[in-house]
Structures are given as C-alpha cells and as structure tokens.
Amino acid sequence: MAHVAANASSPVLMSITRRGVAPNAPVEGSSAVLAASVAFFLAELGDKTMLATITLATQYQGWGGVVGVWAGSTVGMVVADGLAILAGRLLERRLPERAVRIGAAVLFVALGIWLAVEALLAR
Predict the structure, then answer these.
(1) What share of the chain in percent tops pLDDT 90?
(2) Half-sphere exposure of residue 65, counting CA atoms within 13 Å on the CB side?
(3) What is d(CA 92, CA 87) in angstroms, rounded to the nearest whole number?
(4) Helix pair angle (97-121, 62-94), 10° resolution
(5) CA 78/CA 83 separation, integer angstroms
(6) Residues 76-117: pLDDT tens digits?
(7) Would you state the pLDDT for residue 2?
(8) Rg (CA), the chain
(9) Are 26 and 113 in contact (CB under 8 A)?
(10) What's the CA gap between 19 and 35, in Å, rounded?
C-alpha cells in the first residue's frame, strides 16, 4: 500500500518539475531546504531504501544499532544526493532548461507508471 501511495505522488512531482522556474529567478517566500525536504520525503516514501533501512534496523539491536543504521543510511543518502546535485549542475550547463524539465517530467511519469504497475502486480 505504501508503494501505491508513494507512486501517487509522482504526478505531483512531475507537474512541479514540468512547470519549472525562470533560470536564476529567485522564488519569493520559499526555502530551498524546505522545498527539498518535502520533495525528498514524498519521493522516498515507501521506497526500497526505506524498506532496507527498516530491515537493517531490525538486525542491529539496541541504541548502537539504531544510531549506526541511521548514520549509515544518512551518509549513503547524502552521497547519492550529492552525486545527483553534481549531475544536475553539469546538465544545466550543457542542456537547455526546457529539455531538462521535459526529460525530468517524462522520467517521473515513466517511473511512476512502472512502479505502480509493479506494486499492483505484486499483490
């Protein structure tokens, strides 16, 4: 059920990505940290990384295990996100913004459909 709910957020993320913002235009009244946190939370809700973290947390008992799993999963996500940010910056320099927005929107839709079908077939 979590996969179905998480996949339902794909069209929302796609529409935000597709709408886009003018290059280098400041967004009034917003926080990059808040926007990234909300988008990340919605995108990662019920994904395989979360399930793997839950599984690891059950295998390492006590506070040392909990803190270790939390620290390890946090470091892993920070490294993965850092690579994604770097890739985004490189794409920004080489591709027109419109192509990046359309490509991201198409990927969100395609992955959302793929994961929704996978979740429904797994029942």
Answers:
(1) 17
(2) 10
(3) 9
(4) 140
(5) 9
(6) 989 998 998 998 888 888 888 888 889 888 998 999 899 889
(7) 47
(8) 17
(9) no
(10) 15
Q: CA-to-CA distance for 26 and 75, rounded, in angstroms?
A: 30
pTM of the model: 0.49
Q: What are the DSSP calls for 46-108, one per residue?
A: T-HHHHHHHHHHHHS-HHHHHHHHHHHHHHHHHHHHHHHHHHHHHHHHHS-HHHHHHHHHHHH
Mean confidence (pLDDT) of the chain: 78
Residues in the chain: 123
Q: Give the single-character DSSP code of 24.
A: T
| Rounded Cα–Cα distance for residues 68 and 72 (Å) | 6
Place of tokens 């009034």: 28
Please say if the pLDDT value at position 31 is more than 70.
yes
